[in-house]
């Protein structure tokens, strides 16, 4: 088996596992999710300041952001 074929097989498995992980993350209710408040303040123009939460679910590993 050539290296090119082995690489293609590995990439196909990774793609399948990535799809499986995404399905699990969509099904997860994120019961233990942590929300950390973040901000970008102190700008010259205060109207450009923004606030959000960095979220992480330790069960499924999903990371996302939410507005404050």
Describe the overall structure.
The chain has one domain. A hairpin with a 6-residue loop joins strand 2 and strand 3. It has one helix at 3-27; strands spanning 34-40, 50-56, 63-67. The protein has a three-stranded antiparallel sheet, with no helix packed on it. The chain is built from one helix and three strands, in the order αβββ. The model has no long low-confidence stretch (mean pLDDT 95). By secondary structure, it is an alpha+beta fold. It is elongated. 37% of the residues lie in helices and 28% in strands.
What is the general shape? elongated
Supply the number of structural domains. 1
What does the main sheet amount to? 3 strands, antiparallel
The end-to-end distance, rounded to whole angstroms, is 53 Å
Secondary-structure blueprint:
Elements: H1 3-27, E1 34-40, E2 50-56, E3 63-67
Antiparallel strand pairs: 1-2, 2-3
Write a brief structural summary.
It contains 1 helix and 3 strands. The protein has one helix spanning 3-27; strands spanning 34-40, 50-56, 63-67.
């Amino acid at each position: 088996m050539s290296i090119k074929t082995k690489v293609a097989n590995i990439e196909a498995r990774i793609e399948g596992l990535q799809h499986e992980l995404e399905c699990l993350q969509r099904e997860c209710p994120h019961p233990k999710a942590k929300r950390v408040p973040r901000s970008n303040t102190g700008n010259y123009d205060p109207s450009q300041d923004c606030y959000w939460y960095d979220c992480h679910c330790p069960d499924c590993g999903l990371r996302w952001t939410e507005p404050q």
